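FIELD: query
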Amino acid sequence: MRNRTDSPSLTPGYFHLVPLYIVERNSPRLTVSGLIVAQLALVQASRRLAAAGEEIRYLRSTFIPRTSRSLCVFDAPGPDLVRRLNDAARFAFASIDEAVDLPAPAWDQP
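FIELD: result
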């Protein structure tokens, strides 16, 4: 029987790396309500760009209230398109960085 300290099962094809970009925001006045409004603007801008043939998707946001910091994740072919989407949504940002998202591994069953 394996325990939680054993290595995860890395079956072929388990990890599918897609280009992801994280947009960091440091907004002292940002609240959860404000992020929800901004999220709607990001979703709408993402849909407009996708309808125009651009391959970009807004995936999610994480907000850290204590620091007024938020991280928004996008699936896109490059940072320029992510910048265009954020500019279209009129949501200021501090940085755009390429990222790798690793899902939780599946542990082998006994």
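FIELD: remark
Residues 20-99 form a domain with the Alpha-Beta Plaits fold (CATH 3.30.70.3090).
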